[in-house]
Amino acid sequence: MQHKLNKSFTGKLHEVTYLSWEKLDESTLNKIKKQKEFEEQTAKSLKPVYEAAQNPLIKTVLHGLILDTTKHAEIYQMLIDLNTSALVGEESKNLGKKEIAKHLKEEAFMLKQTQDISEIVKDKSIKQVILNIVEDEKKHHKILTELLAMLDKESKEWDSYIYDLIEGFP
């Protein structure tokens, strides 16, 4: 972890912590950049197909693919950004812990409701769709729990904590 003194917009000096990620070699970084571009192009090319779809099942599956592909592009961008530099320290002040805690409770409620629905659905195909949503809700709950815990940690512990969070990223 690297520490530097920076001036804030008010002119006050404060310590800024940079994540100490192992730098990627140029070849790997270029592959990640190309993959990010491919993910973005794929999501863009799926949108007209999604918009033209009439069948709700096909439309929902395509929408899920667009969302996942867009998420993958954003994750690749995060890796690119982390390879250059990433500031931490002020994040916990700027991100609303109350809002995250509130959403964590909402996710817990959604998880419980979805599990309840999965227990009463009899059709195997529909049940599997609901169980897939249950798994997504579990991932969301885990990510928000870890994010909230991360915001409560001292910035010196953020390196390993963020790495662990990303390692468990879907």
Give structural notes.
- α5 (124-152) packs antiparallel against α6 (158-167).
- The chain is mainly α and 170 residues long.
- A hairpin with a 5-residue loop joins β1 and β2 (13-18).
- It is built from six helices and three strands, in the order ββααβαααα.
What's the helix and strand layout?
Layout: E1 2-7, E2 13-18, H1 26-52, H2 56-84, E3 87-88, H3 91-94, H4 97-120, H5 124-152, H6 158-167
Antiparallel strand pairs: 1-2, 2-3
Helix pairs in contact: 1-2, 4-5, 5-6
Question: Key features?
Answer:
170 residues; mainly alpha; three-stranded antiparallel beta sheet; 6 helices; 3 strands; 72% helix; 8% strand; disordered N terminus
